[in-house]
Write a structure and sequence with these properties.
single chain; alpha/beta; Rossmann fold; 11-stranded mixed sheet; 3-stranded mixed sheet; 17 helices
């Protein structure tokens, strides 16, 4: 802490930063650069350290966010979104109650299908965590083509390398904010949860965190180099340029964002052009199993022992798929033909529809589409990851949103304001309704803090034969 009038300033390895007073004695340091701006010759290069600065850097407002497509459609109206222009977007935010002491640290990686999102979304405000004894960090990282384009040239997985650089910054600097660099929990939701699981399998991330929480994202969402290269070539075709990073890097941002969106839409349909991994995951920009930075599919690497010394908490929401299929009218309006087309596109066997009908005879075709998404993309991978890891705890979030007359259920992303204890965020009002249960936020928030503090969220591990799952719902929580 810098003494005197600059009492809200902290010295980092690259310079002094001044934060802003938040509620309850918490100070927020916003937009701290952890790497140099990924622009010009550094755009498709691994992250470099930020240039040191003299004087006191003002960190009282959020910094730029990663370039991403505009948020549109019915789902976009349900989730908060923040976009701040600028090239210096490899930055992070820190909330702390005091620069003294040595408290548990939690580092949050946002979701957004690896193409959207930021650490500046108000839902992720870290004030409650800091008030309750944690130093909370949120990070930005490169998205879309900038972070995950692979054409067989250069260095892959730049977005993941950004996350590792942010974790290294935490290791080297968080002590100045009152955090314990030896007790770091990395956690994330959706693509952020997938990132957490991928980091467990990356040798370059070893030793940077002691615990991990994967919310609604497990360890299968990666692409083979061949599939990733196909997606890169298709992006170049849509742009009308050569299939090189240099050529794609010259395309104006709005045109690149539009082409990324078109490619993302294409891969939701039926085609024999792309591999099974892309057909299942429906995301053209994902981590690439290149054999070096990411040696294997994370689930297999974890089964083989990667991350075995890291405590793991993993879970999903009861009705994940409803976020994508209720607002768009699929649940209410899809028929048998749409169900069959969905299953074909996701490479299910020809008799899959009959098996689903037999198992859930009272469900509509549209609800079966949503249920398949929930079970096969979220719940099953999470449970199998827990079985593959020797120190795993499992939860399920089951409180039902009142949105769309209750049809949303416990949809994807609904748990986030409960975890962060930010139920008052106006951006969440459409999903949460007028009276979300504070007691449930208290219980979930407390469990995350307990896990980050000592590796125990408050229930038994997912071990044989019990396979305990903690269910968070209207009655706060109960073993399931």
């Amino acid at each position: 802490m810098i003494p005197g009038s600059a009492r809200l300033a902290v010295e980092t390895r690259h310079g002094v930063v001044r934060g802003a007073a938040a509620e309850d004695g918490v100070t927020a340091f916003l937009g701290i650069p952890y790497a140099a701006p990924p622009a010009g010759p550094l755009r498709f290069e691994p992250p470099r350290p930020p240039r040191p600065w003299s004087g006191v850097r003002d960190c009282t407002t959020y910094g730029p966010t990663a370039p991403q497509p505009p948020v549109e459609g019915p789902v976009a109206r349900l989730l908060p979104h923040v976009s701040i222009p600028g090239e210096d977007y490899l930055n992070l935010n820190v909330w702390t109650a005091s620069p003294s002491g040595s408290r548990p640290v939690m580092v949050f990686i946002h979701g957004g299908s690896f193409t959207g999102g930021s650490g500046a979304i108000p839902t992720y405000d870290g004030t409650a965590f800091a008030r309750h004894g944690v130093v909370l960090v949120t990070v930005n990282y490169r998205l879309g083509a900038d972070g995950f384009l692979w054409l067989g040239e250069g260095v892959p997985n730049l977005g993941l390398l950004d996350q590792i650089a942010a974790l290294a910054w935490v290791r080297d600097n968080i002590g100045s904010f009152g955090g314990d660099p030896g007790n770091v929990t990395v956690f994330g939701e959706s693509a952020g949860g997938m990132s957490v699981c991928t980091l467990l399998a990356m040798p370059a991330a070893a030793g940077l965190f002691r615990r991990a929480i994967a919310q609604s994202g497990a360890a299968r969402c990666v692409l083979t180099p061949d599939t990733a290269a196909w997606a890169g070539r298709r992006l170049a075709e849509l742009l009308g340029v050569a299939s090189t990073r240099a050529a794609i890097g010259l395309v104006p941002r709005p045109q690149l964002m539009a082409a990324q969106g078109q490619l993302a839409l294409e891969v939701t349909g039926e085609s024999a052009e792309w591999g099974d991994d892309l057909a299942r995951n429906i995301m053209p920009f994902e981590p690439v199993v290149d054999g070096e930075l990411l040696p294997a599919v994370p689930e297999q690497a974890i089964r083989d022992g990667a991350g075995a010394d890291v405590d793991l908490l993993v879970g999903t929401n009861a009705d994940e798929g409803n976020l994508f299929f209720v607002p768009t009218g699929v649940v209410a309006g899809a028929g048998e033909e749409a169900l069959a087309a969905f299953l074909r596109a996701r490479r299910y066997p020809p008799d899959a529809a009959d098996a689903l009908r037999a198992a859930r005879p009272d469900s509509s075709a549209g609800q079966l589409i949503s249920d398949v998404m929930t079970d096969r993309f979220y719940r099953a991978p999470a449970r199998e990851l827990a079985l593959a890891h020797p120190r795993a705890y499992v939860y399920e979030f089951a409180w039902a949103s009142p949105a769309f007359e209750g049809a949303m259920g416990a949809c994807h992303a609904l748990e986030l304001p409960f975890v962060f204890d930010t139920l008052a965020d106006p951006g969440c009002a459409a999903l949460l309704g007028p009276e979300p249960p504070q007691r449930l936020a208290d219980a979930m928030h407390r469990a995350w803090i307990g896990f980050a503090t000592n590796g125990d969220p408050g229930w038994s591990r997912y071990d044989e034969p019990a396979r305990t799952v903690m269910r968070f719902d209207d009655t706060d929580r109960s073993p399931a």
